[in-house]
Write a structure and sequence with these properties.
21 helices, 21 strands, elongated, about 15% strand, about 650 residues, six-stranded mixed beta sheet, nine-stranded mixed beta sheet, 3 domains, alpha/beta, Rossmann fold
Length: about 650
């Protein structure tokens, strides 16, 4: 090789080494790493030695294979001549394709792809040089091809060896001196496999997968990522495999099967957690590795709801949306789901500044801060609400603000009437005045044949929307959505039971036979948005709430989830039905006709609307005669307007 060629080769090598050092110092994102200069030089030298050694070795092996392991003096000269420019060119190619931008001991498919691209580009350059110099400064074409394969294998194997060494070292310690927990994974499907892989890769999780358990016998006695599939989850109770904790990785399993597995863990006195729900993972909210405690909704086994997201997006995108009660359980989830569909503005109406601050911070954390407008306001303040409607001109209103606690409202029904009925009436009138396109009321199954003031006032709100729709025929489409109890919402039995269990009991249940419908807040709100796309005005939508669940069974399951035994560790105490409380909830009135909708989880009910003027007069009578705030008098006045209402009258 002449002196000019040598200078070019040395220049390439120097440029490559400088680039490697720059990447080590500043990282692939050009952010300076806080390491001293000596460590940076050492890492640069180590990488250069590893990669250059691998390139020279594969290049030499290609010559040996081509010439049947007998290299003459002339062939040895050709080897060294070609190596002087191939090695620095390939090193520079590895830099160009970002191979030095990743840590040596972390190796995955993207890294393998970069190695293939770098080696392939050098092979193409070698072929070009061979044709340009008639083979004088390039190895034979067969060596170029064999060298490409060997380069890829040798460099990839070197990276893989470092990764295996790191994982082996991580199997005994996570770098903090703590011994990793031995984890049994229940569910040998895709979710379980990804979870095991994540545990092996991330030492910070402090977890080592020891065994898989699965109901599918075809998977038994096989391995996933090197972890054996032992058998059914019930084998855990036999104690043949020592584990510290179990993770249920079956997001699509039935509630019944999850309950059985939880019982096995409780009997074995084994700590357990679960992966997020399938809905959360599909929506990209969380990853499978973000395990959490098993919750009551996992045991109830609600089927995942498929939403027509395209229609919801068409409804919301580019619109000005107003949500009342934005800080409540339903209102806050409405805001979070609506924000995903890119409204031009999302108006949050809430009278409690603490709840408003919480939902505002959540939305900002989700990256929706620029499009939200938190507005402290009371829906009963007509002057304030008129200003908001006039200033922002909302196109769709989701009315979730309400008094919803049955026992509290039973003793102060006027407050329920003002907020639930008159508040809805005022918002509906403003919606017509300012040309709102759609108005959707969040109602309740307690509005059907009500026995409590809360349900009765919600039913009056439904009737007003139906009457105003029929009377005015306005461009505003009024509709309501009824559903049952929302798991974990404020004032529901679940948080109450959890507090009672934490306090050592007793857990109080009003009646051994009382049943309720339960839904997750995500499911309920998703179906509310779906209903909003289907309404033409005047409908009451009822969500498919699944099966009635005994409250006493919910109490038992929560106690078992806490690792305790019902009626042994924690007493379940029956206290008797409270005023206005039903044994079971109903779905619809006998006078309402059910009409199928396009979504299998949503039913539409159409009933005969009352004359608007008669309804207005009745509401005004209730308001006038309740000036003394006498609870019994107010309930009887509501019953005159709503004959199906069966009020509880206090004797005090």
């Amino acid at each position: 090789m002449n002196s000019a060629s040598k200078r070019i080769s040395h220049s390439i090598m120097l440029t490559g080494a400088q680039e490697i050092y720059r990447l080590l110092k500043f990282g692939s994102g050009s952010r300076e790493m806080k390491v001293n200069t000596s460590k940076s030089y050492f890492k640069a030298l180590l990488l250069v030695l590893i990669y250059s050694g691998g390139i020279v070795s594969s290049h030499f092996l290609a010559f040996l294979i081509r010439f049947e392991f007998h290299l003459s003096a002339e062939i040895r000269v050709l080897f060294w001549t070609t190596s002087q420019w191939i090695v620095p060119v390939e090193m520079l190619a590895l830099v160009v394709f970002g191979q030095f931008g990743s840590l040596l001991s972390y190796f995955s498919l993207p890294d393998a792809r970069r190695i293939v691209l770098a080696c392939g580009s050098v092979s193409l350059i070698s072929l070009f040089v061979w044709y340009a110099t008639n083979g004088q400064y390039a190895p034979p074409r067969s060596i170029i091809i064999v060298g490409f394969v060997l380069d890829t294998v040798v460099l990839g194997s070197a990276r893989l060896a470092f990764r295996m060494f790191r994982e082996r070292q991580g199997g005994n310690s996570n770098g903090t001196g703590r011994i990793p927990r031995r984890i049994a994974i229940v569910g040998a499907g895709d979710v379980g496999a990804n979870l095991a892989k994540e545990m092996k890769l991330r030492r910070d999780l402090n977890m080592t997968p020891i065994a898989f358990f699965d109901d599918d016998s075809s998977k038994w006695h096989k391995r996933i990522h090197g972890v054996p599939v032992v058998g059914r989850p019930e084998l855990i109770a036999k104690g043949k495999i020592r584990v510290d904790e179990a993770v249920i990785a079956m997001p699509s399993a039935s509630g019944k099967r999850v309950r059985e597995i939880v019982q096995v863990f409780n009997e074995a006195k084994l700590q357990f957690e679960t992966v997020p729900s399938m809905e959360q993972m599909v929506n990209g909210q969380v990853k499978a590795s973000q395990i959490r405690p098993v919750q009551i909704e996992d045991l109830l086994g609600r089927e995942r709801v498929e939403l027509e997201t395209g229609r919801i997006q068409d409804l919301v995108r580019g619109k000005i949306i107003l949500v009342t009660g934005a800080g409540g359980s339903i209102g806050s989830e409405l805001c979070k789901q609506i924000a995903k569909y890119c409204p031009v503005r999302l108006l949050l109406i809430e009278r409690c500044e603490v709840q408003m601050f919480q939902i505002e911070q959540e939305l900002i954390g989700l990256g929706c801060g620029s499009g939200i407008f938190p507005l402290i306001a009371d829906i009963l303040d007509e002057e304030r609400m008129r200003f908001i409607f006039e200033r922002f001109r909302p196109q769709i209103v989701f009315h979730a603000a309400a008094h919803k606690h049955v026992p509290l409202m039973e003793h102060q029904p006027y407050e329920a009437f003002r907020n639930n009925t008159l508040g809805t009436k005022s918002l509906a009138n403003l919606s017509i005045e300012f040309g709102v396109e759609r108005f959707l009321l969040i109602s309740t199954d307690k509005a059907i044949n009500p026995t409590n003031a809360m349900g009765a006032t919600k039913r009056l709100a439904e009737l007003y929307l139906q009457a105003i729709q029929k009377q005015n025929g306005s461009q505003t489409r009024f509709m309501a959505v009824r559903f049952g109890n929302v798991l974990g919402s404020s004032g529901s039995v679940i948080p109450t039971f959890k507090r009672q269990i934490a306090a050592g009991g007793p857990v109080t249940v009003t009646h051994s036979e009382v049943t309720r419908y339960f839904m997750t807040v995500q499911e309920a709100v998703g179906l509310v948005l779906q209903s909003a796309t289907q309404g033409n005005g005047g409908e009451i939508f009822v969500l498919n709430m699944g099966k009635l669940v005994k409250i006493v069974d919910v109490a038992r399951q929560l106690i078992e989830l806490s690792g305790l035994k019902p009626d042994i560790d924690i007493e379940i105490k029956i206290t008797g039905l409270r005023p206005g409380e039903k044994l079971f909830e109903e779905i619809n009135y006998n006078t309402e006709n059910m009409v199928a909708t396009e979504h299998p989880k949503i039913m539409r009910f159409n009933g005969e609307a009352l004359p608007l003027e008669a309804l207005r007069e009745g509401l005004q009578n209730i308001r006038d005669k309740s000036s003394g705030r006498d609870a019994n008098e107010l309930k009887l006045e509501i019953q005159r307007l709503l004959p199906e209402y069966r009020p509880y009258l206090s004797k005090i």
